[in-house]
């Protein structure tokens, strides 16, 4: 058997949801996304897809809270992440299968409920920073803080929100299952929403969220991906983003990227984790490249240089 090319694609938020959160609108968005993804697929390519879930898990937490009762209690965060991995995975499987059929490609698609191991000694647990769930008044937040021990912080003048830690992923629990699917030529959707964080020490789910760009990087390293693509809302990365002297980049080396990060060119929480993830991947696999670009550019990626390439 000749070695196939393994490509990990991390889908950004806009691949699934723009402003209409209905199931139908999200399925339509994923249908568009699938049309682009199918352009990457050939008998020589093994495709592995990860995705974000920020808005979906946020909405699900709101729904859970709105109908919380003794008989029908709200589900915790780890369970909600699992639920969104399942629902988004279903939508994407279904949309991809239809597009594959249209393109006369015979491939199966499967989703893995993915647990990602984190360390409870991770510094992030000392400083919860990721806001989740509804906006509350200060009084509501204080009551809940006493009742549950969760941490609440003021979020940019909009109200108080629960914050959870965002630890770094250490490893992916379902490594063997994921590799088995890939090796059987099944298009594999996994590590959705950064994966469900489980504590290394207890192997149990923990109230935290993992950045999907970091989890996708772990995935790419774990399966020895030949190409790591992060799809987001922009075609390329810019220096001085949004300023008059904005400069779009075709390519950057690891050392250039590290210099730009130090100079503060990439916004924390949006572009910075992507560049960090790309750099980490290329350091682990110096012969490979990472690409940060938009969905629309994906079709040309095997033919020409698109987006911003990160190389060793
Ligand atoms: P995703 O859902 O794909 O993770 P994010 O909104 O978290 O998307 O991050 C991508 C966004 O980061 C881009 O759409 C852009 O608005 C913003 N961004 C911040 N800094 C830069 C930069 N230097 N170059 C390009 N985009 C940047
Ligand atoms: Mg993001």
From TrEMBL:
Domain Aspartate/glutamate/uridylate kinase: 5-293
Cited Gene3D superfamilies: Acetylglutamate kinase-like
UniProt pathway: Metabolic intermediate metabolism; carbamoyl phosphate degradation; CO(2) and NH(3) from carbamoyl phosphate: step 1/1
Catalytic activity line of the entry: hydrogencarbonate + NH4(+) + ATP = carbamoyl phosphate + ADP + H2O + H(+)
GO molecular function: carbamate kinase activity
Sorted UniProt keywords: Arginine metabolism, Kinase, Transferase
InterPro entries for the chain: AceGlu_kinase-like_sf, Asp/Glu/Uridylate_kinase, Carb_kinase
Key word Transferase present: yes
A Pfam family reported for this protein in Swiss-Prot or TrEMBL: AA_kinase
Family under the similarity heading: Belongs to the carbamate kinase family.
Protein name: Carbamate kinase
Lineage: Bacteria, Bacillati, Bacillota, Bacilli, Lactobacillales
